[in-house]
């Protein structure tokens, strides 16, 4: 079975979008994120920009295989804001992304149905205004070998177009490579005949 080792995300923040309903204004934003710490900082910055707004509702998702996500209503009725925003993240099938929607209350209550529609629509507009890119899921390895085996190792790396992201070439050499998930088994096999060369997976 073919391994699906790609995912969709954004590399840079999307353009600001605006959705209006009964005098309420909803400003939508998308941001690329790598961890939960990013989320807090981005929200704080946006609160400074929109200090007179009423709500800063958001949803985010991180990860490709071990997914983490959160949806926050920020004072709106339960599940009327964060969940509709997160629903659009799922609908567009994107990850490593944060969507924040800033609401200025216009004096007329929208009701739960109206809020769900407004937050969902703004999130959709924000994603449509973002440049979504496709990336590969990569696994990182370290190749450990003695200097005398350098030529053999480098030949394999070159023949397989492997991506070196770091190297430590002292007496005991270490080369760090990033391998597309579906190439992992093949790459391990290629190094098998080199008994003095060790290849180890990094991370979890």
Automatic annotation (TrEMBL):
<feature type="domain" description="Impact N-terminal">
    <location>
        <begin position="22"/>
        <end position="127"/>
    </location>
</feature>
<dbReference type="GO" id="GO:0006446">
    <property type="term" value="P:regulation of translational initiation"/>
</dbReference>
<dbReference type="InterPro" id="IPR036956">
    <property type="entry name" value="Impact_N_sf"/>
</dbReference>
<dbReference type="Pfam" id="PF01205">
    <property type="entry name" value="Impact_N"/>
</dbReference>
<comment type="similarity">
    <text>Belongs to the IMPACT family.</text>
</comment>
<dbReference type="InterPro" id="IPR020568">
    <property type="entry name" value="Ribosomal_Su5_D2-typ_SF"/>
</dbReference>
<protein>
    <recommendedName>
        <fullName>Impact N-terminal domain-containing protein</fullName>
    </recommendedName>
</protein>
<dbReference type="InterPro" id="IPR001498">
    <property type="entry name" value="Impact_N"/>
</dbReference>
<dbReference type="GO" id="GO:0005737">
    <property type="term" value="C:cytoplasm"/>
</dbReference>
<dbReference type="InterPro" id="IPR023582">
    <property type="entry name" value="Impact"/>
</dbReference>
């Amino acid at each position: 079975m073919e391994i699906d080792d790609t995912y969709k995300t954004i590399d840079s923040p999307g353009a600001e979008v605006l959705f209006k309903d009964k005098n309420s204004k909803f400003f939508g934003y998308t941001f690329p994120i790598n961890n939960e710490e990013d989320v807090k900082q981005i929200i704080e910055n946006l609160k400074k920009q929109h200090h007179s707004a009423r709500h800063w509702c958001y949803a985010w998702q991180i990860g490709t295989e071990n997914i983490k996500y959160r949806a926050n209503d920020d004072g709106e009725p339960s599940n009327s804001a964060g969940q509709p925003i997160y629903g659009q993240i799922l609908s567009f099938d994107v990850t490593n992304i944060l969507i924040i929607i800033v609401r200025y209350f216009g004096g007329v209550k929208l009701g739960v149905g109206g809020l769900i529609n407004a937050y969902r629509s703004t999130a959709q507009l924000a994603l449509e205004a973002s440049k979504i890119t496709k990336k590969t899921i990569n696994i990182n390895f370290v190749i450990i070998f003695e200097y005398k085996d350098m030529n053999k190792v480098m030949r394999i790396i070159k023949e397989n177009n492997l991506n070196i992201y770091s190297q430590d070439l002292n007496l005991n050499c270490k080369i760090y490579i990033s391998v597309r998930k579906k190439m992992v088994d093949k790459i391990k096999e290629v190094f098998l005949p080199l008994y003095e060369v060790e290849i180890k997976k990094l991370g979890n």
